[in-house]
Amino acid sequence: MRDHDVTGLTANELKQTKRELLASLALVRPDSPARVPILAHMSAIDAELAERSADRTGELPGSPFALILAAATVARW
After folding, report:
1. What CA–CA distance (Å, rounded) separates 32 from 10?
2. Residues 59, 61: Cα–Cα separation, whole Å
3. What is the rounded CA–CA span in Å between residue 31 and residue 40?
4. 39 near 25, Cβ under 8 Å?
5. Closest CA to 14 of 53, 51, 63, 48
6. CA distance linking residue 54 with residue 19, whole number of Å
7. What is the pTM of this model?
8. Which pLDDT value is given to residue 71?
9. For every one of its 77 residues, what pLDDT tens digit does the chain have, with 9 covering 90 and above?
10. Domain residue ranges in the chain
């Protein structure tokens, strides 16, 4: 099976590629075997975007991790 490595793409490139894949999927017949690689690539993009979103959770100001980190920093003073 071919690996769909999308880690080198920027967030904008991932979103653009997903839009293009959605357009391709709309043109393919529902029973076409061409849907398989399109769906696999879309799944890889979704997973990468989800992973990047999860990685940034601690950076967001109000996220639980950021609040715990801030409290721990204050407690050390």
Report:
1. 30
2. 6
3. 16
4. yes
5. 48
6. 22
7. 0.66
8. 62
9. 456 788 888 989 999 999 999 999 999 999 999 999 999 999 999 988 888 887 765 555 556 656 665 666 655 54
10. 11-76
Q: Which residues of 20-49 are buried (b: 16+ CB within 10 A; e: fewer)?
A: ebeeeeeeeeeeeeeeeebeebbebbeebe
Q: Spell out the SS3 assignment of the chain.
A: CCCCCCCCCCHHHHHHHHHHHHHHHHHCCCCCCCHHHHHHHHHHHHHHHHHHHHHCHHHCCCCHHHHHHHHHHHHHC
Look at residue 5 in the predicted model and tell me its pLDDT. Answer: 82
pLDDT at site 66: 60
Residue carrying structure tokens 């003073």: 77
- Sole residue written with tokens 């071919």: 2
